[in-house]
C-alpha cells in the first residue's frame, strides 16, 4: 500500500523519520514515497504544494504529514505561504472531517497544565470541520471609504457542510460514550445559528445520542475547568483549531496529540496537531509521539491494520511507563531516543 510521506518544514522531517522506523517494525505492507511540501517545497520548487506532491497525495492510499510553517516565508503573498499547502491538500482531497482525540496517558498526569485529578478524566475526541468556515471564505485587503486599510475574511457554512460533519460527530459519539457537544457562537454569529439548527435537525437520526450545545467561549473555559465532561465535541474549522490546541495542553503536551483528516471514503491525511516549531528544528528536541500516534490512526482508519495500530499505541504507553520523556514532557530524550524507546517497547 502506497503511503505519501510529506515531511514539510521545521521539525516535520525529524518526527516523520522516527515514525517511519516504527511503521517498518510493525508491518511490511507499506511502500513510501516522499515529496516536498510547505516552505521546503517553496524553496525547492517555487510553490508550497507542487503538482507532483498533490499528485502523489492523490495516488497514495494514505498521507503521513509532518508540519508546515517557515518564518522565512511569512512575508510571501498568501497563496505562496507554507500553510497553503495543508489547506490546499485538505480542500483538494475533500478531507472535511478532522478527528483530534485528546486522552491523557496516565503516566503524563504530571505534565498536564491542569491538576492531576482534573486532567486524569480527559478522554475526548474533537471533530473539527476542515473544508469550510472563515478559512476558505472570500478574503482580502481593501480600503474603507475614508481610505483606511481594512482586512476581511468571510465566515460561512452551508447546511450540507454542517450536516455531513454533524453526522461524523454523532457516529463518533455512538462508538464511544454516546455524548455529543456541538460548539458554536450562535448568540452572535448567523453562521453558528445555522450550524446549531442543522445539528438539531440531524440529531433526529440519532435518538440514542445525548446532544448538547455550548458557546465557544464557555467551551474554552469548561475544557480547563472540567474536561472530563466531554466525550465528543463537534465544531467548525476555526473554533476547532483553537480548542484542539487548548485540549492538547490539558492532556499533557502539544507533542502528544495525533490527528486524522478524512474524506467521505476513509481516505485520510494523518498529522500531529502541532506545528513546525522552527525554534527547535534540527536539534533533536522534538517529541515524535504525536506523529507516531497519527500513524497508528492511519493504520486503523485508512489501511485496515487495527492490530498493528493497537501495538503502536501500546508501545507508546509502555515507553512512557518506562520513563521515556522528551523535553516538552520534562525529560531529556532526543527525538531519536524517543523513537528508540518506542521500538524497544515493540
Ligand atoms: C492545524 C494548524 C493549521 C490550521 C495551520 C498550519 C494552517 O494550525 O492543523 O491546526 O490552522 O488548520
Ligand atoms: Mg492549529
UniProtKB/TrEMBL annotation:
Keywords: Amino-acid biosynthesis, Branched-chain amino acid biosynthesis, Cytoplasm, Leucine biosynthesis, Magnesium, Manganese, Metal-binding, NAD, Oxidoreductase. Its EC number is 1.1.1.85. Its cofactor is Mn(2+); Mg(2+). It is an enzyme of class 1 (oxidoreductase). It catalyses: (2R,3S)-3-isopropylmalate + NAD(+) = 4-methyl-2-oxopentanoate + CO2 + NADH. Its main location: cytoplasm. Substrate binds at residues 90, 100, 128, 217. Residues 2-342 form the Isopropylmalate dehydrogenase-like domain. Belongs to the isocitrate and isopropylmalate dehydrogenases family. LeuB type 1 subfamily. NCBIfam families: leuB (TIGR00169). Homodimer. This is 3-isopropylmalate dehydrogenase. It comes from Rhizorhabdus histidinilytica.
Amino acid at each position: 500500500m502506497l503511503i505519501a510521506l510529506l515531511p514539510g518544514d521545521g521539525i516535520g522531517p525529524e518526527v516523520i523519520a522516527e515514525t517511519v522506523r516504527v511503521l517498518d517494525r510493525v508491518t511490511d505492507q507499506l511502500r513510501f514515497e516522499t515529496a516536498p511540501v510547505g516552505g521546503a517545497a517553496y524553496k525547492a520548487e517555487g510553490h508550497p504544494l507542487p503538482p507532483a506532491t498533490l499528485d502523489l497525495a492523490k495516488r497514495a492510499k494514505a498521507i503521513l504529514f509532518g508540519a508546515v510553517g517557515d518564518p522565512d516565508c511569512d512575508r510571501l503573498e498568501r497563496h505562496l505561504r507554507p500553510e497553503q499547502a495543508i489547506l490546499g491538500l485538505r480542500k483538494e482531497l475533500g478531507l472535511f472531517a478532522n478527528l483530534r482525540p485528546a486522552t491523557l496517558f496516565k503516566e503524563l498526569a504530571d505534565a498536564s497544565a491542569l491538576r492531576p485529578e482534573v486532567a486524569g478524566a480527559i478522554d475526548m475526541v474533537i471533530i473539527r470541520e476542515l473544508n469550510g468556515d472563515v478559512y476558505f471564505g472570500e478574503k482580502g485587503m481593501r480600503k474603507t471609504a475614508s481610505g483606511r486599510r481594512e482586512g476581511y475574511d468571510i465566515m460561512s457554512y452551508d447546511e450540507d457542510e454542517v450536516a455531513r460533519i454533524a453526522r461524523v460527530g454523532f457516529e463518533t459519539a455512538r462508538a464511544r460514550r454516546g455524548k455529543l457537544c456541538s460548539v458554536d457562537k450562535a448568540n452572535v454569529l448567523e453562521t453558528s445559528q445555522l450550524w446549531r439548527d442543522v445539528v438539531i435537525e440531524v440529531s433526529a437520526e440519532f435518538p440514542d445520542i445525548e446532544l448538547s450545545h455550548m458557546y465557544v467561549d464557555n467551551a474554552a473555559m469548561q475544557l480547563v475547568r472540567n474536561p472530563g465532561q466531554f466525550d465528543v465535541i463537534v465544531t467548525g474549522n476555526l473554533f476547532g483549531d483553537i480548542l484542539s490546541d487548548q485540549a492538547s495542553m490539558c492532556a499533557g503536551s502539544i507533542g502528544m496529540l495525533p490527528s486524522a483528516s478524512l474524506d467521505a471514503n476513509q481516505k485520510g491525511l494523518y498529522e500531529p496537531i502541532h506545528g513546525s516549531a522552527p525554534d527547535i528544528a534540527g536539534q533533536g528536541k522534538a517529541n515524535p509521539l504525536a506523529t507516531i500516534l497519527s500513524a497508528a490512526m492511519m493504520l486503523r482508519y485508512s489501511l485496515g491494520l487495527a492490530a498493528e495500530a493497537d501495538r503502536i499505541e501500546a508501545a507508546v504507553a509502555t515507553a512512557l511507563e518506562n520513563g521515556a520523556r522528551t523535553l516538552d514532557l520534562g525529560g531529556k530524550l532526543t527525538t531519536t531516543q524517543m523513537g528508540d524507546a518506542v521500538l524497544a517497547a515493540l
